[in-house]
Specification:
Radius of gyration: 15 Å
Order of helices and strands: HHHH
Number of helices: 4
Number of domains: 1
Distance between the termini: 12 Å
Structural class: mainly alpha
Number of strands: 0
Largest sheet: none
Helix content: 55-70%
CATH architecture: Up-down Bundle
Shape: globular
CATH topology: AhpD-like
CATH class: Mainly Alpha
Amino acid sequence: MHAIARDWREAPLGPVDEALCGYAEKLTLQPTDMAESDISALRRAGLDDVAIHDATQIIAYFNYINRVADALGVETEDFIRPWGEGPDAIR
């Protein structure tokens, strides 16, 4: 999981997870550029329409809730360590 947080492109992912990470990145950073080809890539990776719908809902929800938290100045919990920190961190 830490490798995914650092850079998903360098993490040892299978084709489905790799396709989902690329889709999530584009939906997060370039939502107006989404196209049928993005959905087709998920289908080629093996996802059906229900899985694509569910993934899109989850990705969009996290984008939404992060924007709400940013807009309202919600501070992160001090008991939650950032990825890659702490005794169990993978380096």
